[in-house]
């Protein structure tokens, strides 16, 4: 008999059955534990990992809570009435399916947040750019004098935001995983920034992935729509107020871009707002992000001058097209957050001139189709240096298009890229893959890149 089963038997004999089970013990699971404990709700916790990230904090702060790690034992799930699922856990786990079939309800931390939040919510999702747009909108709201709660998939777990008093507006980044278990979201403004293949190891099809993202538009708030993305444009719902954004000239009172006297301007309708060159963030993808943020800010009545001030000064987020250094005329850019093909293509196009990119890519591809890199490689990539588990998969796609070399670690990748690059080039770490095959997370990967570049510069 395993230790999990022993613990279940001991609890049963002591009459300590529980109705609520938190599945997943990371940051989200810890925030759920705090939420339930504060309300006097009895619960247990489980995680498939033997040593989950927040295990020490949970055992320290909630020593009386039954904990089960190292796998999902069906016996733990058998009598549960409610499953509180962390976003990293698939609803297709057999123990979860069986519990649902036995009548257990399922929700996540975002659903609990939505049931109790009293301030308006601005909700942001998309395959790429959601952290940047979330941060932009939050900074715009703060510049306008609003006390702003910002979190969700970015930074602070949503439930922890409920502990702050006097919040005027919540700005939430939401992943497709979080949206799977939401039924009460009714954001005052919401956006799907874009849609490209991601998490195909968890979703059976692009249709399923899109369907999860589309939950952000539930309710009756304003839908902010990327008019350049056919999949997003197809999510519009009849009877709802819609504000669109595009990198083309806008129609009506939507947001867009147009040239006037050789200057590229951001527009709302026919009104010129800001020369694109004054935005501190680099790249076309960030102009689209800026337009989305302006549209969301409009819905919550943020003054335009406050929003434009933020666009002029916001430097961007770490690991998202982050400038690291220049050496021998070569720029080094850290886009470690480029964890899917669409994100990497956006970064490449945003920084590219003719064949000026040396790309460092690879890692855990999550079942993605890398063939979409071929066209952008033909136009913009001088060479690629590949790392990680799926390097052979990417190599097979690119080897007949551009020079490709493999590297065993980040130091080797940076040194190889330096040899391949020419003055005027950009070496771009944008892996198109998750990082967990080699690193703790994308931050650790970006940190390794930064350290390797600094060694090169100081050599």
Compact description:
36% of the residues lie in helices and 20% in strands. With 459 residues, it is of the alpha/beta class.
| Helix percentage | 25-40%
Regions with pLDDT < 50 over 5+ consecutive residues? 1-16
Strands ordered across the widest β-sheet: 7-8-6-9-10-11
Main sheet summary = 6 strands, parallel
Apparent shape: globular
Question: CATH superfamily name of the largest domain?
Answer: Mur-like, catalytic domain
Q: The CATH topology of the largest domain, please?
A: UDP-N-acetylmuramoyl-L-alanine:D-glutamate ligase
Radius of gyration: 23 Å
Give the class from helix and strand content and strand pairing: alpha/beta
- As an assembly, this protein is single chain
Number of strands: 20
Report the CATH C-level class of the largest domain. Alpha Beta
Number of domains: 3
DSSP strand (E) fraction?
Answer: 15-25%
How far do the termini sit from each other?
58 Å
List keywords for this structure.
disordered N terminus, UDP-N-acetylmuramoyl-L-alanine:D-glutamate ligase, alpha/beta, 459 residues, 18 helices, six-stranded mixed beta sheet, globular, Protein-Tyrosine Phosphatase, Chain A, six-stranded parallel beta sheet, 3 domains, 20 strands, Rossmann fold
């Amino acid at each position: 008999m395993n230790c999990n089963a022993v613990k279940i038997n001991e609890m049963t004999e002591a009459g300590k059955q529980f109705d609520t089970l938190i599945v997943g013990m990371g940051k989200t699971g810890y925030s759920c534990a705090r939420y339930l404990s504060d309300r006097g709700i009895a619960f247990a916790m489980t995680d498939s990992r033997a040593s989950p990230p927040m295990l020490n904090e949970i055992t320290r702060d909630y020593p009386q809570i039954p904990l089960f790690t190292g796998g999902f034992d069906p016996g733990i799930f058998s009598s549960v009435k409610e499953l509180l699922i962390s976003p990293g856990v698939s609803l297709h786990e057999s123990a979860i399916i069986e519990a649902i079939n036995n009548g257990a309800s399922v929700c996540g931390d975002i659903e609990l947040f939505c049931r109790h939040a009293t301030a308006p919510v601005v909700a942001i999702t998309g395959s790429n750019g959601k952290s940047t747009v979330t941060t932009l909108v939050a900074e715009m709201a703060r510049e306008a004098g609003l006390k702003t709660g910002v979190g969700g998939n970015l930074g602070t777990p949503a439930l922890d935001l409920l502990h702050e008093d006097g919040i005027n507006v919540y700005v939430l980044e939401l992943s497709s995983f979080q949206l799977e278990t939401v039924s009460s979201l009714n954001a005052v403004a919401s956006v799907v920034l874009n849609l490209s293949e991601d998490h195909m190891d968890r979703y059976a099809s692009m249709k399923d992935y899109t369907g999860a993202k589309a939950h952000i538009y539930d309710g009756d708030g304003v839908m902010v729509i990327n008019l350049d993305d056919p999949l997003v444009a197809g999510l519009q719902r009849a009877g709802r107020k819609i504000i669109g954004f595009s990198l083309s000239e806008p129609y009506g009172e939507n947001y867009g871009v147009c040239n006037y006297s050789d200057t590229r301007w951001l527009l709302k309708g026919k009104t010129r707002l800001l020369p694109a060159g004054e935005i501190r963030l680099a790249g076309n993808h960030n102009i689209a992000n800026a337009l989305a943020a302006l549209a969301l800010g409009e819905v919550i009545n943020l003054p335009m001058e406050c929003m434009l001030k933020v666009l002029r000064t916001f430097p961007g987020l770490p690991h998202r097209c982050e400038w690291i250094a220049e050496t021998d005329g070569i720029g080094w850019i850290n886009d470690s957050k480029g964890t899917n093909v669409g994100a990497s293509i956006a970064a490449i196009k945003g920084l590219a001139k003719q064949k000026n990119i040396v790309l460092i890519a690879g890692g855990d591809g999550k079942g993605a189709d890398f063939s979409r890199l071929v066209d952008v490689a033909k136009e913009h990539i001088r060479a690629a240096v590949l790392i990680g588990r799926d390097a052979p998969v990417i190599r097979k796609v690119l080897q007949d298009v551009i020079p490709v070399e493999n590297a065993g670690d980040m130091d080797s990748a940076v040194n190889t890229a330096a040899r391949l690059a020419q003055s005027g080039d950009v070496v771009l770490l944008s892996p198109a893959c998750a990082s967990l095959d080699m690193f703790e997370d994308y931050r650790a990967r970006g940190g390794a890149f930064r350290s390797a570049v600094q060694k090169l510069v100081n050599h």
